[in-house]
Amino acid sequence: MNTLLSSPDRPDAPAEVAVRFEDVSKTYAARRGQSTVAALADIDLSVRAGSILGVIGRSGAGKSTLIRLVNGLELPTAGRVLVGGTDVANLPEEELRQLRRSIGMIFQHFNLLSSRTVHDNVALPLEIAGASRAEIRARVDPLIDLVGLADKRDRYPAELSGGQKQRVGIARALATRPSVLLSDEATSALDPETTRSILDLLTTINQELELTILLITHEMAVIRGIARDVAVIEGGRIVEQGDVFDLFTRPQHPTTRAFLAAESGRALPPFVAEHLSATPAPGSQQVLRIIFRGAHATDPVLSQITQQFGVAVNILGGAVDAIAGRPFGTLIVGVPEDPPLLEHISAFLAARDLDLEVLGHFALPAASPAQALGEVSHVA
Length: 380
Ligand code: ADP
Description:
By secondary structure, the chain is α/β, with parallel strands linked by helices. The chain is 34% helix and 28% strand. A six-stranded mixed β-sheet has the order 6-7-8-3-9-10, with helices on both faces. Helix 4 packs across helix 5 (162-174). The chain starts with 16 loop residues before the first strand and ends with a helix. 35% of the residues are buried. Adenosine-5'-diphosphate binds at residues 28, 37, 39, 57, 59-65.
């Protein structure tokens, strides 16, 4: 009985939910010499069918617990976890087995059997499910093709790179035709380029197989690279969730801001950070962060400000990028200390739906300010 995605076709119906956490809490019982651990509290989260939802959090935030609740490896202390509308708790054994077959999982360290070839690793879940040889033959080779490993079919894990091992992990996870794929830090052991190729593969699989993907990670780059929806988890609670573009461009919670602080372009260049102060100093400039998003993301805003207000704007740092296919940029600039001017600039940006953050005041101590900022402009 696989109830996943099996509701009738209703074009006007709200998006179907593949996985739902309903007020879920999880407390681990006390272990010897330790008190109980409240790993998750009041989790309310829905993963839309066919979507890719990323959950980001630091170590110990509760990510693994969250993902293990989906396939019943852990059970909630309170609340319900529904997969395709079915409560994971209290399922008869056979139904739990069926449910688990409809949920694939990939891992940070791949979890391949070293004594089995690529083919035999991918075949393993089918063997466990009691599939016939013919079924295994029909299923495994196309999956190995799908993940781009046709030439490695008879190799052993020790002969593969990290990225290739994860491709085997993905093929194995898909063997039982799951509707939901759980990804537990699947790219954390991989270099950035390999991470990119694995995220691309997961995106393709999501689209071609209409597979729902729930992934946990501690890396914002992973969220940016694949997810459309994101939830930020901290201390067992979801502190912020929503559309990835909205969260990246207008983070509300300090934890989200902390994750974003390390993102290229958002971070203050070290020479600015070291000399940033909360109060103006002789010769200082006001440091602003301008966030470009939406319809005006690609407007030539700096030259417009220069023309309109007759001021020179020093570029101190920044980057222009796209998130989920939408243009998004950050610029860190210095403008003269002048409160009325700042109000004008603020209104000018607000009228274009661009965000402004006032970061502080910046002056290099040794050199004369004009000279210092002149040099800075060259660096930028
Ligand atoms: P993350 O995956 O974000 O690192 P976890 O879900 O692994 O977080 O852990 C959340 C909290 O629950 C941590 O404080 C961790 O020590 C605790 N924890 C996880 N698993 C167990 C367990 N089996 N028994 C007791 N405490 C646990």
